[in-house]
Amino acid sequence: MAWANTAARIRGPLSFWRMMRGVSAMRPYLEERLRAAREHGGEGLIAELVRVEKEGGRISGEEMVAMVFLLLGAGSETTTHLISGSVFELLKYIHFCLGFQLARLEGKCALKALLTRWPKLALAVPPDEIRWLPRPGLKAIEKLPVTAGVE
Question: 55-64 pLDDT, tens per residue?
Answer without folding.
Answer: 887 888 888 8
